[in-house]
């Protein structure tokens, strides 16, 4: 035995090898973003008295948080690897910090949803508020974790990725809100959709217009097609959300339905686009060697 301290994998830069395939990483990114944004939306809706919206957002946060944790565990290939990552704590390492952020968040979101279903209003309010506080960090930390890797396209996109992930997560949560308020007033969800879509579209446009290898990774190949589709769905979702007003009657409800579905789907395409941009940049870097 030597006297040197062991070096855990969390102290080394991450390179995502091409052998690691979708859907694990994109699913983790997508569901985590929507879960965090939904928890924040639920907390705000509770404060403003939008009970139907708060209830739906709480259930969405719990479901998406569970899916995010499942995707994270599956990406580790074996559950014991995930547990080892929990034991090897390092607050300075985004992925380690994010794992410790996601797990308690998922617990709080699940308790909140259970309390909501059981009618335990005080418990749901307390745990929902705690989940809402953690929500913004859960929504965006995955972008920081990607930036902290050696994958060229992700590492160089440190300015835009947090805004892209925040915007698409907010849009996805707004889409769920639109579906939950089809027979009521979708105004809060509509305003959230506008804010999220603006952030997402501006960040995506900046990525694709960036000079050099960064822009090439995001405006070529499969990544470009997915990001184009995501932008189209986001724009369509916002347009339909604006038409989804109660005074328009049944056509307005159909518009809100379509807008909600479009906004939910756009986030999935956006995460897949970012994932494949990273893979393409790895391949390009290998070809240049």
TrEMBL record:
Species this protein is from: Cryptosporangium phraense
Xref: Gene3D superfamilies: Formate dehydrogenase/DMSO reductase domain
Name by which UniProt lists this protein: Polysulfide reductase
Membrane listed as a keyword: yes
Transmembrane segments: 27-44, 56-73, 93-115, 122-143, 163-180, 223-243, 255-277
Keyword annotations of the record: Membrane, Transmembrane, Transmembrane helix
Domain of life: Bacteria
Keyword Membrane: yes
């Amino acid at each position: 035995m030597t006297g040197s301290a062991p070096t855990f994998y969390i102290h080394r830069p991450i390179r995502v090898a091409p052998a690691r395939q979708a859907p694990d990483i994109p699913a983790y990114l997508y569901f985590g973003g929507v879960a965090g944004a939904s928890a924040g939306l639920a907390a705000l809706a509770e404060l403003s008295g939008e009970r139907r919206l708060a209830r739906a957002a709480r259930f969405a946060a719990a479901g998406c948080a569970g899916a995010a944790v499942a995707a994270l565990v599956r990406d580790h290939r074996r559950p014991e690897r995930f547990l080892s990552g929990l034991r090897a704590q390092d607050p300075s390492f985004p992925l380690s910090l994010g794992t410790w952020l996601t797990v308690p968040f998922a617990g709080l979101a699940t308790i909140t949803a259970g309390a909501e279903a059981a009618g335990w209003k005080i418990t749901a309010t307390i745990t929902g508020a705690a989940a809402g506080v953690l929500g913004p960090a859960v929504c965006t930390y995955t972008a920081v974790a990607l930036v902290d890797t050696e994958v060229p396209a992700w590492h160089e996109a440190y300015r835009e990725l947090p805004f892209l992930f925040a915007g698409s997560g907010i849009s996805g949560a707004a889409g769920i809100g639109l579906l939950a308020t089809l027979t009521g007033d979708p105004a809060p969800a509509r305003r959230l959709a506008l804010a999220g879509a603006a952030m997402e579209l501006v960040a995506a446009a900046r990525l694709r217009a960036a000079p050099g290898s960064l822009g090439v990774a995001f405006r070529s190949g499969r990544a470009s097609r997915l990001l184009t589709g995501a932008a189209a769905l986001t724009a369509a979702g916002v347009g339909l959300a604006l038409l989804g007003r109660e005074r328009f009657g049944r056509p307005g409800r159909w518009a809100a339905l379509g807008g909600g579905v479009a906004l939910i789907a756009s986030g999935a395409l956006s995460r897949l686009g970012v994932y494949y941009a990273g893979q393409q940049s790895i391949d390009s870097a290998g070809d240049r060697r």
